[in-house]
Amino acid sequence: MNRLNRLPVDVDIISQLSDLKEIDYKNMLILTALIDLLIEKGLITQQEMLDKTNKLESELDNSILPQEFL
Length: 70
Description:
Layout: H1 3-40, H2 46-64
């Protein structure tokens, strides 16, 4: 394929990646604000949030990877 013919496809992919990056940033910002509010209001502690995060990560690792890889 000619390099010039690929240019619109490449630009489209770069544009889509940029959109995903912006969406990811906004989601992270909202999630951080929500966690901060929950902690500020005393509904959860930072340690509870970290413990739950570690538990979920461990469960995800166990469900994706066979035990011999962990």
